[in-house]
Amino acid sequence: PRDIDGDLTEILIEEEQIHGRLAELCRRIEADYAGKDLLLVGVLKGAVMVMADLARELKHPIAMDWMAVSSYGSGTQSSGVVRILKDLDTDLHGRNVLIVEDIIDSGLTLSWLIANLKSRQPESVEICALLRKPDAARVDIDVKYLGFDIPNQFVVGYGLDYAEKYRNLRSVAVLAPHIYS
Ligand code: PRP
Ligand code: MN
Ligand code: MG
């Protein structure tokens, strides 16, 4: 296979910037949840990298669990109708839940997920997302811990895929149009 760099037009966020920003978010999370239970809920598969780095940066005895969801609908557009492919193993009753996501695009996935998790009687539900595309938003999401706002471009890396590839890129980069057109 080709070298990964040939498929990219631009590095949007370098690895060091990601780690620096995650460290800042972790200091806020530690202060906000001081003395409290905290369950990180990662959304497979995109959130794997941010979950791994966020969790290791936190000086807090957190628990981690995972959900896999899939939005119905044709093509690449989210429909807002979400199906659970893998549910949590954890009972959320009385827990402080922090949903960890790689990106908020339309916001439809998270909008559904927040409502779903809130119905399970948790103590609290908040969001941590590395990236957000304000120009792609179809629904407003209240993100307590946000890494970066980015332009509405096709980005990959650090968990984000195109056709399941590029998740292993250490930075967040813009995919070259010749790859997807
Ligand atoms: C991507 C991304 C978010 C979601 C954001 O996941 O990781 O979970 O889409 O889109 P939205 O805000 O428009 O709902 P995807 O469904 O591609 O699955 P993946 O994490 O396995 O790549
Ligand atoms: Mn995802
Ligand atoms: Mg994806």
Distinct ligand kinds: 1-O-pyrophosphono-5-O-phosphono-alpha-D-ribofuranose, manganese (II) ion, magnesium ion
Q: Please tell me the CATH architecture by its name.
A: 3-Layer(aba) Sandwich
Task: Please work out how many helical segments DSSP would assign.
Answer: 4
CATH topology name, in short, is Rossmann fold
Cross-sheet strand order for the largest sheet: 4-3-2-5-6-7
- Give the DSSP E fraction (strand runs of 2 or more residues): 25-35%
Low-pLDDT parts are none
CATH class: Alpha Beta
Terminal CA distance: 19 Å
Q: Which sheet architecture does the biggest sheet show? A: 6 strands, mixed
Instruction: Please tell me the total number of domains.
Output: 1
Structural description of this entry:
The structure is a single chain. With 181 residues, this protein is an alpha/beta fold. The chain has a single domain, classed as Rossmann fold, CATH 3.40.50.2020. It contains 4 helices and 9 strands; from the N terminus they run E-H-E-H-E-E-E-H-E-E-E-E-H. The radius of gyration is 16 Å and the shape is globular. The two termini are 19 Å apart. It binds 1-O-pyrophosphono-5-O-phosphono-alpha-D-ribofuranose, manganese (II) ion and magnesium ion. The site of magnesium ion (MG) has 2 residues, from loops.
Kindly summarize this structure in a few lines.
Helix content is 24%, strand content 30%.
